[in-house]
Amino acid sequence: MRRGGSNLQHRGKSTQPDSRNEDEDASNHDEEEDEFHDSKDARLTLMEEVLLLGLKEKEGYTSFWNDCISSGLRGCMIIELGLRGRIELEKSGMRKRSILNRKLELKSDQVTGDVLLDEALGHIKITKPADTVPSWIELLSGETWNPFKLSFQMRQVRERLAKNLVEKGVLTTEKQNFVLFDMTTHPVVDAATKQRTVKKVQDAVLSRWTNDPHRMNKRLLSLIYLAHASDVLENAFAPLSDEDYETAMKRVRELLDKDQK
């Protein structure tokens, strides 16, 4: 991702594996999955939430000037697969390599039931040798000079996500005339669902701010980073008062600064 790619690292006191930590991680993962499936907005993936944040509600399309959302949505797929336990990063090793330099490894090839996620998972499953997260985002975006890897490009992602949201009753489909061409648009019809997404992003850096990314819900933390990387985060903060807006942006910058350490 071109903007704000995640670089958070866990700084352990020992290089020896701790079975208790592994058990805790597994437990936390299960709890987050249960919370995801039980929550009111569980039906939305990270990709759908980021697209929803980027859509103009009445017009039904993203900003023509946003050149980050395409790669951002591919990053959403990678993170979503990680949160669902399908992929993971290789171990950092003794040299403590940064997250961006570690390669993706397949953890489980069990299908997710989401067509886009399963398509991305299929590409990762058959690729040898493994590649890094930035490389995978480029491959899924079609930004490669290797003709043998052009087939990894995932096409019409925004349109396919919009259709998913139409099927879920969040968006509708319309045709708009732009003088020289007609374009299919997807205005928001379920404003409450979008508002829930906006509100939880706002609350994460305002009323529920923890000042410690390790204590934040991983899915919510991912959404903030991915919304920033997709250049749609300010859309969630636009309705805030000037004071709350400054506070929210300051805390996002704090998260991004931690990301660089």
Can you offer a commentary on this structure?
The chain has 261 residues and is mainly alpha-helical. It has a single domain, classed as Orthogonal Bundle (yeast vps74-n-term truncation variant fold), CATH 1.10.3630. It has ten helices and four strands; from the N terminus they run H-H-H-E-E-H-H-H-E-E-H-H-H-H. The strands form two sheets. The protein has a two-stranded antiparallel sheet. The radius of gyration is 19 Å and the shape is globular.
Secondary-structure element series: HHHEEHHHEEHHHH
Can you summarize the main beta sheet?
2 strands, antiparallel
* DSSP strand content: 5-15%
CATH class membership: Mainly Alpha
Q: Count structural domains.
A: 1
* Structural class by sheet pairing and helices: mainly alpha
Strand order of the largest sheet: 1-2
State the CATH architecture. Answer: Orthogonal Bundle
Mean pLDDT across every amino acid position: 84
How many distinct beta strands? 4
By CATH, the topology is: yeast vps74-n-term truncation variant fold
Tally of helical segments: 10
- CATH homologous superfamily classification: yeast vps74-n-term truncation variant domain like
Low-confidence segments: 1-42
Give the end-to-end Cα distance, rounded to a whole number of Å: 18 Å
Whole-angstrom Rg:
19 Å
Coarse shape: globular
Helix content percent band: 40-55%
Organism: Stichopus japonicus (Sea cucumber)
Pfam family, one: GPP34
Region (Disordered): 1-39
Subcellular location: Golgi apparatus membrane
